[in-house]
Amino acid sequence: MFKKILIANRGEIALRVIRTCKEMGIKTVAVYSTADKDSLHVKFADEAVCVGPPSSKDSYLKIPNIISAAEITNADAIHPGYGFLSENSNFSRICQEHEIKFIGALPEQIDSMGDKASAKETMRNAKVPTIPGSVGIIKDLKEAKKIANKITYPVMLKATAGGGGKGMRLCWNDNQLVEGWSSARTEAAAAFGNDGMYMEKFIEEPRHIEIQIAADQFGNVCHLSERDCSIQRRHQKLVEETPSPFMTTDLRTKMGKAAKKAAKAVKYEGVGTVEFLVDKFRNFYFMEMNTRIQVEHTITEEVINHDLIKEQVKIAFGEKISGKDYFPQMHSIQCRINAEDPHKNFIPSPGKITNYHSPGGHGIRIDTHVYASYIIPPYYDSLISKLITVAQTREEAIQKMKRALDEYIIEGVKTTIPFHQQLLENEKFIKGDFTTKFMDDFEIKS
After folding, report:
1. Tens digit of pLDDT for each residue in 200-236?
2. In the CATH hierarchy, which top-level class contains the domain 132-201?
3. Are the C-beta atoms of residues 60 and 9 closer than 8 Å to each other?
């Protein structure tokens, strides 16, 4: 097994990886920016190396600094967590060149799934259901109009290098398409340095349901069931749960098979996620594949009693997986606790945590890197904690979450705890009657 792993990330995911490594008897190296010197992942790693100033581009995204940190500490593997360099094929390739194992996808696998237009073409060839739309990049506005009228409005223009909702435009007619074509390309070029666009039929009343998969270098692939991530705002997930209240046994079987086909199509190795849009008739369509661990991997772990970080490490080391599919035995919900003010359009709320008390009890899990007196820096994602409950039924998991949120005290900064408390009292949420458009009509009371 690996002797020492460097975690090329920060915050709660870095601490999450450190904990599993320690349980496996593997030494750990934390990297940190000067803004993160007091973070718990720095305190609990066996070694820590400063890789630069607060700006991500000068620290966590600075590949030469990360590789240098691995070399001076003699780390034989790097775990990228999620975000930052986790889906950077160049970083994966450079790790190979320096004979450091990248605990994630191979460069060619990242490339094949990183470009959304080519990923869709790959899935189409693998007979995985895809949303009707353009084949490859659209060359000009004239072609865009032709495709839109063929698949019929409404349509969604999407940046091929996009993410986080940037470079996307919903168009209901030709006039909106003309306007959207120009603005989406401009936004995509500024955000990603690539103004390539593709088009898809807009799915009304959609659910965002993803399938967790694992695959080894010997061709074994399994799925670990689904997660429902439909509660989101501006394409950013807020709450996740498994199993999905919309799921049926038949649909789970079909989506599981499709996710495994997707992984096999790119000869995938590691832990990953295949994301689908599911319409109100339970037709499902491939959206994208994330070639990394995800924020919401926690709830899958809770319902199948399986450590996905350990699985990642073992696969990267060359161990076989059983190929056995896993199905939820419990129900788990995750609320993302962000340092944001939900009453002011979720604006970030960095600053010093003056008082911190975490909930406890049976069926409660918290993944966090913060504590009383910790200063939340303004330079990174606002996620400060993941609150997870697990119970025999969805109703019990909701009740546990309500109790846990009531106990959770974070003072000194604004958090999304009040939002989650109101969400869990919402009649539609309680009934499981929601889509990705849920937040469009959700009003947060003061």
Report:
1. 999 989 999 999 999 999 999 999 999 999 999 988 9
2. alpha beta
3. yes
Q: At what angle do helices 297-304 and 308-317 cross, to 10 degrees?
A: 100
CATH tag for 207-440 (out of 3.40.50.170, 3.40.50.300, 3.40.50.2300, 3.30.470.20): 3.30.470.20
Structure pTM? 0.89
Catalytic-residue membership of 227: no
CB contact set of 117 (below 8 Å; sequence gap of 6+): 134, 136, 137, 160, 196, 198
φ, ψ for residue 118 (rounded to 5)? -70, -30
Positive/negative CA dihedral, 289, 294, 299, 302: positive
Backbone angles phi, psi at 371, to 5 degrees: -165, 170
pLDDT at 406 over 90: yes
Half-sphere exposure for 40 (CA within 13 Å, toward CB): 20
- Summary mean pLDDT of the chain: 96
What pLDDT is attached to residue 446? Answer: 84
Q: What is the pLDDT of residue 164?
A: 72
Does 207-440 match 4-103 at the fold level? no
Which candidate in 292, 336, 365, 403 is catalytic?
292
The domain 4-103 is placed in CATH, from the list 3.40.630.10, 3.40.50.20, 2.40.110.10, 3.10.310.10, at 3.40.50.20
